[in-house]
Design goal:
Order of helices and strands: HEEEHEEEEEEEHHHH
Strand order of the largest sheet: 1-2-4-6-8
Strand content: 5-15%
CATH architecture of one domain: Alpha-Beta Horseshoe
Number of helices: 6
Largest sheet: 5 strands, mixed
CATH topology of one domain: Leucine-rich repeat, LRR (right-handed beta-alpha superhelix)
CATH class of one domain: Alpha Beta
Radius of gyration: 26 Å
CATH superfamily of one domain: Ribonuclease Inhibitor
Number of strands: 10
Helix content: 25-40%
Structural class: alpha/beta
């Protein structure tokens, strides 16, 4: 009887172990499938950002550009799936759920437009793209409810800064060293900005009021300056309105501006607008993208293809 019981228990043990192994295999497979789906979604989201910011010319682009979904799950921006460990793509930080929370690519030769796709908006808490050559307008900050740090210092952004008044979680807001104009944005409320952790200048913002308002005083504390607008200059018409000085170098020239207008009217693409014209780097708009945006948005030359 005891021998029979032992045999029965032994057989049950073998069945139980086999069943457990089967469950483990199914669980591993399910994990891989979830990771694959997640990686596919992330890759598709990042492709727009990568291409619009001149990804193929980045200084460090290891892993970036691997958007072929047939290679997934071997290529995941967050570091690779279960049983296939990979390093995260440079500049990417993810949470334990595989969601991208930070994009940090300072001084990495990013050129072009800043286009952060919608799937990333609700998870991003930090963006650092400082020291690059990004152009166009800043994003709509209302799309980033979790955003805490935003740093795009020393790029070529233009236009008016979208509101950040309701972004109460922002602790650092660094946008100095661009070509932004208009009034400075109202500081977030309730205020979470750390003292001295933000910068608004140099840009072309309207200077602080005299006497200073409570908003000016709040920015003074956030920037660590006696007057936040130190370093900002008054915008000229070449910055924010259409004039015959299309490149904004301070002079209207038949050898440059007339050709730029002619090319734009004929539908030349952005890269072709300044080609061979020798526009100085000191000009307000010294790149094809900046010229295309200005011709379309400020001067109404709609034949220029929309920059992508």
């Amino acid at each position: 009887m005891n021998a029979l019981r032992l045999t029965h228990l032994s057989a049950f043990g073998h069945v139980h172990a086999s069943a457990m192994r089967a469950v483990l295999v199914v669980a591993i497979g399910a994990t891989a499938l979830v990771t694959q789906a997640s990686a596919q979604s992330l890759n598709g989201s990042l492709r727009t950002f990568y291409l619009s910011a001149g990804g193929p010319d980045w200084t460090n682009k290891t892993g970036w550009g691997q958007f072929d979904i047939t290679t997934i799950p071997a290529w995941s921006p967050c570091g690779g799936p279960f049983l296939q460990p990979q390093q995260p793509w440079p500049g990417i930080t993810c949470n334990v759920s595989g969601q991208i929370t930070e994009i940090r690519l300072p001084n990495n030769n990013l050129r072009g437009l800043l286009r952060l796709p919608a799937p990333l908006n609700t998870t991003l808490i930090a963006i650092d793209l400082s020291g690059n050559q990004l152009e166009g307008g800043l994003p709509n900050f209302a799309q980033f409810p979790q955003l805490m740090q935003f740093n795009v210092q020393n790029n070529r952004f233009t236009g008016v800064v979208p509101p950040i008044r309701r972004q109460s979680g922002i602790t650092a807001f660094r946008i100095g060293g661009n070509r932004l104009h208009g009034p400075a944005p109202l500081p977030p409320f309730p205020r979470a900005l750390t003292n001295g952790g933000s910068s608004l200048c140099p840009n072309y913002f309207t200077p602080a009021s005299s006497p200073q308002t409570r908003f000016d005083l709040a920015w003074n504390v956030a920037t660590g300056l006696a007057t936040w607008s130190q370093g900002c200059t008054t915008a000229t018409s070449a910055v924010y309105s259409c004039s015959r000085d299309f490149d904004g170098d301070g002079a209207v020239s038949a050898a440059t501006d007339a050709i730029i207008l002619a090319r734009g009217s004929l539908g030349y693409s952005a890269p072709a607008l300044p080609q061979g014209l020798g526009i100085p780097s000191t000009a307000v708009r010294d790149s094809g993208l900046a010229l295309a945006l200005h011709l379309r948005d400020r001067c109404g030359v709609m034949n220029v293809p929309e920059p992508r």
